[in-house]
């Protein structure tokens, strides 16, 4: 039997191949319009908002010690290194992508795209080039805000959508400049949401997609099927540097908060709860009578914090923020980081088997007590060469750790007393020579008393370490 109509012939062939039982679920195109279905209208509307970001920076090249030797310079002078083809400086170029989010020339991109740059050039999809400057950066979320200098009036801004509305299986487009070949559009689906095991930033709740993302796509747009920005492409999982169908994007709730706070405050400002804990494991869930491992069990509440004032207690299990389910501790940190300082949030918790909702007033983490960052003299044993500070909520938020009272080690010089004493950045100094250390003042007072024998204890990774050294 022959069919003159090719569509009818294709339909019959499909029925034969898949069987009559499934024929009702499969439909072939029935018109030219259906055959020509395309993402082109979405791309035409969104692609002009995605830019290429080129950066330059001057790198000081290390000159071998031979060229610094006085004997060498006696014969060849200061130009010796250049004469031997070894310049002291070189220009390093890098490439990424960005998204125009305000029609006055504001561009959002990844922090790692522009980090350390001396010059930034933004190239529009129509090949116009403009110099740009950094408005602000946030290393912890890997986001940066740029401003195009002398921005034209016809810049196309891309509207920020609601990434929380995305579901696994939704179609998305990734737009950027992979490998420097020029603007490229790839399509795929949302493979997962709220991915928290991707260690590319301090706030881990990423959109995972199989839309091809490659080097150069960083800072580009992840666009929903309605043409709105739902994420900033930031990382890929790859063993050879190329796309294997596992890419990650920063969701727009995080992008919006960082963008707005940098434009308003010049820096990223995040809300502070003042309560922290650990993810609920299956064992904890069983012990508490929960039907599944979900949420965060509170083990610390900072006195006077918003969480404390709202009535959150140690032992509570936080399960939702503004009706958004909390999966684990990383997810809680992400949800809190997407809240706006000055507003209030509803936190749902479980206490003694009963659910309860409290309202939390959102504030910035306070600088109380003052951090009093201090550099100890290189000649001051046993901690000379270290930088210490009082840990307060603001500093704890910057470091991405839970706030607690005490003195924390921030930095240590390579060759110093502190390094020899076994001190490490992140250590809490608990006691020195039998005296408890509550703040930087206490520590300086103890160190001002010369002695040839020092004993001290520090807390590192939850463990208390005791050391004794003689001079």
Q: Can you describe what's shown?
A:
There is one protein chain. This protein is of the alpha+beta class. The protein has 14 helices and 25 strands. Strands 19, 20, 21, 22, 23, 24 and 25 form a seven-stranded antiparallel β-sheet that branches. It has a six-stranded antiparallel β-barrel with strand order 1-2-3-6-5-4. The longest helix has 14 residues, at 252-265. It is globular. 37% of the residues are buried.
Going by CATH, the architecture of the largest domain would be: Beta Barrel
Question: For the CA atoms, what is the radius of gyration?
Answer: 28 Å
* CA distance, first residue to last residue: 101 Å
Morphology: globular
Report the sheet-strand fraction: 25-35%
Low-confidence stretches: 6-18
From the structure provided, what is the oligomeric state, counting identical versus distinct chains?
Answer: single chain
Number of domains: 4
If you consult CATH, what is the topology of the largest domain?
Thrombin, subunit H
Largest sheet: 7 strands, antiparallel
SS class: alpha+beta
Mean pLDDT: 85
Helix proportion: 10-25%
Task: Identify the CATH class of the largest domain.
Answer: Mainly Beta
Number of strands: 25
By DSSP (H or I, 4+ residues per run), the number of helices equals 14
């Amino acid at each position: 039997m022959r069919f003159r109509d090719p569509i009818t012939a294709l339909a019959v062939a499909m029925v034969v191949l898949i069987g009559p039982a499934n024929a009702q679920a499969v439909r072939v195109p029935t018109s030219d319009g259906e055959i020509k279905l395309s993402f082109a209208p979405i791309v035409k509307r969104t692609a002009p908002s995605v830019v290429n970001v080129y950066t330059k920076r001057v790198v000081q090249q290390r000159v071998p010690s031979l060229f610094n030797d006085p004997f060498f310079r006696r014969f060849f002078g200061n130009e010796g290194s250049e004469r031997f083809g070894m310049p002291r400086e070189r220009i390093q170029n890098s490439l990424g992508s960005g998204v125009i989010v305000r029609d006055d020339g504001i561009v959002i991109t990844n922090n790692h795209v522009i980090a350390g740059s001396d010059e930034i050039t933004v190239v529009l999809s129509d090949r116009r080039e403009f110099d740009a400057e950094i408005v602000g950066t946030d290393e912890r979320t890997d986001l940066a805000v740029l401003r195009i200098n002398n921005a034209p009036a016809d810049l196309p801004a891309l509207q920020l959508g609601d990434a929380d509305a995305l579901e696994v299986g939704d179609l998305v487009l990734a737009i950027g400049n992979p490998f420097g070949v020029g603007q490229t559009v790839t399509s795929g689906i949302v493979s997962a949401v709220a991915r928290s095991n991707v260690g590319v930033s301090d706030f881990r709740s990423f959109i995972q997609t199989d839309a091809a993302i490659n080097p150069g796509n960083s800072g580009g747009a992840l666009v929903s099927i309605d043409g709105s920005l739902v994420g900033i492409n930031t990382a890929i999982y790859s063993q050879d540097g190329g796309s294997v169908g596992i890419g990650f994007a920063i969701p727009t709730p995080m992008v919006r908060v960082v963008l707005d706070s940098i434009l308003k405050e010049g820096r990223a400002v995040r809300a502070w709860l003042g309560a922290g804990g650990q993810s609920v494991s299956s064992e904890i869930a069983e012990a508490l009578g929960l039907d599944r491992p979900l949420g965060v069990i509170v083990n610390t509440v900072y006195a006077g914090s918003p969480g404390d004032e709202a009535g959150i207690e140690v032992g509570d299990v936080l399960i939702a923020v503004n009706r958004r389910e909390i999966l684990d501790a990383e997810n809680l940190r992400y949800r809190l980081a997407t809240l706006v300082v000055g507003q209030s949030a509803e936190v749902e918790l479980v206490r003694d088997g009963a659910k309860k909702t409290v309202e939390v007033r959102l504030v910035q983490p306070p600088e109380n007590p003052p951090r009093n960052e201090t550099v100890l003299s290189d000649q001051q044993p046993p901690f000379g060469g270290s930088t210490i500070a009082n840990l307060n909520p603001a500093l704890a938020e910057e470091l991405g750790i839970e706030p607690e009272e005490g003195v924390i080690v921030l930095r240590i010089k390579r060759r110093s007393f502190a390094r020899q004493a076994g001190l490490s950045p992140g250590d809490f100094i608990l006691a020195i020579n039998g005296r408890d250390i509550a703040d930087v003042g206490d520590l300086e007072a103890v160190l001002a008393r010369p002695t040839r024998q020092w004993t001290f204890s520090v807390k590192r990774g939850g463990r208390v370490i005791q050391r004794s050294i003689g001079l």
